[in-house]
Amino acid sequence: RLLTTAGATGAGGLALGTTGGALAHAATTRDRGPGLSTVGSTSVPFHGTHQPGITTPIQAHGHLAAFDLVPGAGRRQAAGLLRRWSTLAADLMAGGTAETDTGVARDAGPASLTVTFGFGRGFFDATDLAHARPAALDPLPQFSSDHLDPERSDGDLWVQIGADDGLVAFQALRVLQRAAIESGAARVRWQMSGFSRSPGATARPMTTRNLMGQVDGTNNPQPSDPDFDRRIFVPAGGEPGWMAHGSYAVVRRIRMLLDDWEAQSRAEQERVIGRRKSDGAPLTGEEETSPVDLDAVDEAGDPVIPANAHIRVTSPDTNGGAAMLRRSFSFHDGFRADGAPDAGLLFVCWQADPLNGFVPVQRKLDRGDALSAYIRHEASALFAVPGGAAEGEYVGQALLE
Length: 401
Ligand code: HEM
Description:
By secondary structure, the chain is an alpha+beta fold. 22% of the residues lie in helices and 19% in strands.
């Protein structure tokens, strides 16, 4: 039986950004025979100009894993691992082979699996490639509100996995982790798991919500924007050359103080963000996609979107145009000793240059937007994510060959 409800959104209809404004994604739907829904059969190509998992619509399940090179492993071992990882990722994303089959995902199709690889700052020293390290990988500034756990931060290598099936996502993580062990080159430093909405769970494709209940992702840059590529991807001919068509990912584990948040009235919650909770419309507009009017004032002459509202403080209009593509999973790792959920956002944002994206915006947020009282940044990492591999090549080859 063809599960058409799920199929309606499974082919990527759930845009990462605005409702209806579908992000470009290169997903193709393969016929895996009768009975496999579109959710299961949708595959995303591994090879291409950019790596997958950046403009691909956010999937229902995600894993982020950082690896450190083991002492003694150098450039040759790292190149071998990236070659192996790339082969495995391409196989897994196409639906798997006997080699990548651990049995876990045997009955499933590729389920929009994406695997994305990145390099952290430490990678370049370990491999004697310090001369090739991008300036953009300089450590992020320390922010006054940071509560960072170093053991869950940074890392030499990064793997981002997303899939619309939890078993498919786990299998990919396990296959890639096992390959790292077998290579003798790298081992896991930290790993985090997250989730987002399942395709077909809503009556029509909608922007997803976060665990505070807000519509999250509305004002993301869209690939149809004329300046999208310039803001998100390193241009060909940019520095360093091996990062052509790549991007920089900032990863932050942000715990939400949900007990405090849920104690606020809906009106207060809406003032914190500057958007309505019900449908994500700005407080100055009718619907989610209405333009934000930061100049609007009420009868008393006060700004309708408060001075410290999250969308005012983060808006490119108040940050000299700084923009980023936010593509985050939610996380829930059980409950803390005080009964509060250990839950929040595995915040991932993409930009051509973190000094022109995440850093200036987070500097302003750090001075205290209205949302800051309800969140804690607990882990942080920055990765250089090279462009996509062509057929027969591996990710990072221009750096490592
Ligand atoms: C917008 C939530 C952290 C940057 C938004 C919106 C929500 C939201 C609900 C409005 C809808 C949208 O346009 O997506 C959150 C939550 C966070 C968080 C719950 C933490 C748990 C951050 C961080 C940054 C950031 C750390 C960057 C340093 C932005 C930007 C926008 C935005 C750039 C779009 C502003 C605009 O152009 O209108 N966020 N956010 N957010 N957020 Fe956050």
